[in-house]
Amino acid sequence: MPSSSSREAQDRAERERLLPNENERNGPDNQRTPSSWWTPRMFSGCNDPNSVEEDEEDGVPSRYPKRSSSKFWIQSSTYLVILVTGIFLGLVASKMHREIKASRGNGFPTEAGYPKIPPPSGLPRPPAYLVNGTHGAVASEEVTCSNLGLSILKDKNGTAVDAAVTTALCVGLLNAFASGIGGGGFMVIRIPEHSPLPHHKAREAGIWAVDFRETSPAKSQKEMYGEKKAGRVAAQNGGLAIGVPGELRGLEMAHEMYGTLPWEELVMPVAELAKRYQVSRILAKRIRSMGESWMKNFDAWKQVYAPDGQFVVEGDWIARKNYGKTLETIARHGASAFYEGEIAKKSVRTIQGYDGIMDEEDLKSFKARRYPAIHQTYHGKTIYTTSAPTSGGVMLGILNLLEPYNFQESSCLDSHINQHRLVEAMKFGFGARSEVCDPAFAQNASRFDEFYSKEWADAIRPLITDNTTHDYKYYGLVHDTPIDKGTTHLSVVDQWGGAASVTSTVNGIWGSKVMDPETGIIFNNEQDDFAIPGAADQFGLQPSPWNYPAPGKKPLSSTAATIILNDDGSLHAVLGGSGGSRIFPSIVQVILNLECGYDISAAIERPRIHNQIVPQITTIEVGPEGEDKGLSKSLRAKGHELLLFDVNLGIAEVQGVILDNGTLWAASDSRKHGVAAAY
């Protein structure tokens, strides 16, 4: 956001210049049509190497062509080609619309490139647990890890960050399909003014974001996954899919800022756990549901997950011995043991053996980044989250759009019109998100601040029509963005009011499917979150050039680790989620539910709705109570294409802790069989 009054005045004048008058804003039958003025490219914050090229003669950007007669026929021919192409794409889109409509309730159409999703089963949901205490709480997706983190708070008098380090490493061990030291992520931490920290650290009191997102290796190229090269599959599986891991550098940085216990005491309990632990329901489910027969073809995987030739099942005892030894080394020698020395050499050897390009210098040079968390107010509270390349700013923008509706005074999300407004706000959020990229590679990173400004929301809100939804182009979607996946989240609060909201990931389930046999490390496939040049999606949207791979670049992320403060500055809530592109919309819905008086468990467990513009489908979770036919009828009447699916699929999960009148309440999402802990 602009830091000076003069900058604010300039921005305000620019926005007023760009905003339409009422006649421009309203089309036939008073339906607003933003296509005449909604031009997000003019604001673009990220560098598009293909969109602005200087003319050799006078330096004028080539996207503003000079009107020379010698170019007339070339331009005319080009326009004709574009017209014919547009007609063709229109016919394709029309056909796809019919296919989607015909598949209503039965899953995404295979023709559109989306997998089928099982319809609602009517089966009972897993139990949801609400725990409480007065001193500390940990909410993670694994009960063993929640309890292990709580022991750091309770038995060792540790801080929220101390507990978060142990809990994150624990989840990465037990649920290795989602996270681990071979991945990366983001966190937001609250360092309270009154804490056990030495005086010099206490001066850092406040709310900080820590960015430990994986980076693209130094030998990366924009065209490295192009059709003439490796292709998209190489960004998903194998060595070329692996970004430089950042988890340990991120945990290390947070520990230096707000940790009191020795690093070794935080890591060693997880190293011990690696010697023998029990297969959970979600781990068995992930192995079974993915049909991971490939595991049996690689000894490193087979020894852990199919030691007798058959895949392990819930309740079996297994071990990750090599991984445990790696954690022991890291416990004794710190995070640097991962980035330099024998572990680094072995990791690079394995990655390059699977055609990867990462080298030891990539690991050695990786650095986490910290900065004051971005924030915005919402109904008297202040919400802190992470900036680009995450979707934290977009999440704040969605809340800004919804703020004047006062859901708590209008039946909350039980109201059909409020559900429609939520979906529409979500879609404008995804439109804005299509411009987000790594700020280090942005032409105008301040553009990202506009997305969570009140002014942006005030300009967009009139476009939310209560009687109808709109075509995808209406929402400012300028480019296709990859759909990220997987991930884990944990939320921690300590006895001093310190807090940690940590989202970590290896991206896809089992990441790149590369495990180093000597260290036991499972590596991410974060490179799949980059766009690939030259391949339009089924709606004709070109991939975002702002999100192409580049040396040292971080791909776009859907995460939004969150901490919320009351108007007096006291802690209110710690939230975050997993589940790819559904992460930040899920957090928004939990915040709305909390505002409407639900406890943290109920706020998390309530069925959710989702729409990310492409595909043009609104998905609705359905529990054992069955479909809300009134809601479905209302949304369809407004033009929404609906897909109903079973809430038990566990596509997106939220973990949260709230502080209410001196009592901590914590809950983990039953969609992933999570259980929180508190004392």
What features would you describe in this structure?
The protein is α+β, with helices and mostly antiparallel strands and 679 residues long. It has one domain. It is 33% helix and 14% strand. The chain is built from 21 helices and 19 strands. The chain has helices spanning 5-18, 22-25, 72-102, 143-154, 160-174, 199-202, 247-258, 263-273, 281-290, 299-305, 321-333, 336-339, 342-353, 360-365, 392-402, 416-433, 446-450, 454-460, 583-595, 600-605, 629-637, and strands spanning 130-133, 137-140, 184-191, 206-212, 277-278, 317-318, 369-372, 374-378, 381-385, 488-493, 499-505, 562-565, 571-578, 609-610, 618-622, 642-646, 653-660, 663-668, 675-678. The strands form 4 sheets. It has a 7-stranded antiparallel beta sheet. The protein is globular. Residues 1-44 and 48-114 have low confidence and may be disordered.
Task: Sum this structure up briefly.
The strands form four sheets. Strands 1-18-17-13-12-9-8 form a seven-stranded antiparallel beta sheet. It has a seven-stranded antiparallel beta sheet with strand order 7-4-3-11-10-2-19. It has a three-stranded mixed beta sheet with strand order 14-15-16.
Give the secondary structure arrangement, pairings included.
Elements: H1 5-18, H2 22-25, H3 72-102, E1 130-133, E2 137-140, H4 143-154, H5 160-174, E3 184-191, H6 199-202, E4 206-212, H7 247-258, H8 263-273, E5 277-278, H9 281-290, H10 299-305, E6 317-318, H11 321-333, H12 336-339, H13 342-353, H14 360-365, E7 369-372, E8 374-378, E9 381-385, H15 392-402, H16 416-433, H17 446-450, H18 454-460, E10 488-493, E11 499-505, E12 562-565, E13 571-578, H19 583-595, H20 600-605, E14 609-610, E15 618-622, H21 629-637, E16 642-646, E17 653-660, E18 663-668, E19 675-678
Parallel strand pairs: 15-16
Antiparallel strand pairs: 1-18, 2-10, 2-19, 3-4, 3-11, 4-7, 5-6, 8-9, 9-12, 10-11, 12-13, 13-17, 14-15, 17-18
Helix pairs in contact: 4-5, 5-7, 5-8, 8-11, 15-16, 15-18, 15-19, 16-21
Family: Belongs to the gamma-glutamyltransferase family.
EC number: 2.3.2.2, 3.4.19.13
Organism: Kockovaella imperatae
